# Entry
Amino acid sequence: MGSLRFFRRVRIAPGLTLNLTKHGASLSAGVRGAHVTVGRTGIRRTVGIPGTGVFYTSHTGLHTGVHTARHLTEAARSPPAARSSKNLFIALLLCGLLGLLGAHRFYTGHWLSGILMLLLTLSGYGLLITVIWWPIDFLIILFGQFHDGHDARIAW
# Structure
């Protein structure tokens, strides 16, 4: 028995596409050979060598596969996931207003990547990297997948 398939890619801007399927919409950002896709099932990061078919994909969020699930007895014994003392709204606001400077990363305790983002933005050529990095962080925070420096999920 066959099944109906639907896929449509809409280019919003250079390096930013909206993907539409029968299961929902997702947003992809990046360049040829490296991109991040944020959708209802989580975040997928893909890096590859263009034209060769060689690539690596990592996926976090829902539907990441059985191999990532904990054993039932281990899940029953483990404490619930820690929640951060940081506020997701403040992180989203900082990312929206001062995201190119990495303010949201400093707020959430990601000091090294915050310093890297700040230095890249202040340098001339590094701004090209943070212009792609900043909206990806914004989407990750918006979908509630951002963690603080202690790997605790940031909540509203």
